[in-house]
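TL;DR need structure tokens for one chain.
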Amino acid sequence: MQTSIRFAATALGLALLAGCGGVSEEQYKAAQSNADKYKKNADDEAAALAAANAKIDALNAKVAALQQANAAASTAVENTSQANADLQAMNAALAEDSAAGRLQVTELAGLVTVRLPEKVLFPSGSAKLSKEGLAELKRVAEVLKTITNKVFRVGGFTDDSPIRTKQFPSNWELSSARALTVVHYFEGLGIPGVQLAATGFGKFQPTVLNDSPDHKAQNRRIEIGLGPVPSAAPVVAR
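>> reply
TL;DR here they are.
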């Protein structure tokens, strides 16, 4: 700012000298040199100020990024803690069923998951729940009804043995129908539909290789994952 004032004063002095007509060429050149020097200083100060502002902006951006990363880390810790709590609660509530081999409570891709083998739920090649399957899913549903702020993602899985019937032209249809059967049953037991989702995976997500009858049996299953509630969809104006 002081340099700018000096530059303005020098420029004014030049104008006055030129107007009076009583100045030598040397004096005029000296004054002009001073004016140029002050102008350069003013330009340098402006450039330095711009550079300082750019550094401040960059530091502010880094602070914002660090705050965002810290928030994400805190959320991840909370989610992990909640997942551990859910896992412990599910294990405790379904300990008897797990010990009997009717289901398995595990954590898959960060989601607490209840895995039930086909033999507990469905006859081979069918999407109709067996008597044992109805009873087992009822016990699972009673536990799920105590959990809020979660979506229960029901996945149907088959082995790689193809099925080609009028009702199920492929493994896609069979796995999807089984997942939907479980979802409808849960809804009938009082679990809100907003907390339910169904997906058929066919043969494409095996837990082990389909290289033996025992391994094929492991791949024929229903999985119920406790997932986060999706963000609310935006309202579209009509």
